[in-house]
Specification:
The protein has five helices and no strands. By secondary structure, the protein is mainly α.
Amino acid sequence: MKKGISLTFFFGLLIGGMAALIIWYYQKSTSAEEGALALLDRLADVDRRWRQAREQPTTGATPTPLRIPIQTPATDETPAFLQRPVITDTAVPEDLTRIKGIGPVFADRLRAKGIDTIAGVKALSPAQLADILQIAPARAEIILAAAQAA
């Protein structure tokens, strides 16, 4: 007898859960459909009003266009923030840190001496480079070899 009751309880619970799931899914799907139908109704109403506005006869008066006043400066001077920068020097400094062994500090030291291109670094002797960068001549030779490869 107990076995039959527990089995009946299990099947009742299973059927009740499935019924609750079906009711929940039905409610969810119908509410989404109602929202979609309401949106379609609003779209149709907007379309109907737009068509009515297009079909109304005009009275012959043209609408005045919207005019936005634009202030122009009294002089012909261009403001500083609109002026293009004037490039006076045609030589563009290169990124010296592309040379293996030269970091930001060494690049700053080279620029302080007026060397701002890789070709300028290549033109130096190992002793000159060692003197500018304040390093050993052997390390200067390694940097010059990297500059030749760059």
